[in-house]
Amino acid sequence: MINKSKLRDKRFWEKWKKSGAVGGTGTALDRKLKAYDCEGQSLEGIDEALKKGYILRAFLSGGGLRVIRIEDGHNGPLKGYGEHPNLKPALRRASKDYLSGGKPYECVYLTGTTQTEDNLDLWVKVGRKLWAEKKGEEIHLEARAWNYKPVISATGETFEKAYKTLNEMVTEEVFKQARVL
Predict the structure, then answer these.
(1) Do 67 and 85 reside in the same domain of the chain?
(2) pTM recorded for the entire structure
(3) Same domain, yes or no: 24 and 93
(4) Which of 23, 67, 90, 162 could form a disulfide with 156 if both were Cys (CB 3.0 to 4.6 A apart)?
């Protein structure tokens, strides 16, 4: 138990922060979280998987996490997996997981977040789906309704380019259209 007088002591807090017990600039915990979120990690693993004919599905878990599955066909063998309270870090985790051959997680999140990073993160957060696959020479990314019916799609040379285009296309009007499906 911590003495209440210590809580008011500025030196105590500085020492505690330096110990890595809390997040903050440069702390051990902060570095671990950045590594876990795969900050700076590209999505090349996703591109590689899609070019090999695998599919990518993104959906919301029961606990509110954004879940990414790279599979050999719908509900087929799992080739890569990522989960996170937000979509982009979950995508980076799945990309890294695919490239490393499906390594088990060091830690997992228990619940998601109500905050979103972009339009597609909001799309998944409210229970809708994303689906990606290779069509011809391009990556085809679809925003789908809760029942997997396609609503809107975009293509690109890479997953990241298709993601950026689709993210700009998902507007309030598209959300309304998806409610009807």
Answers:
(1) yes
(2) 0.77
(3) no
(4) 162
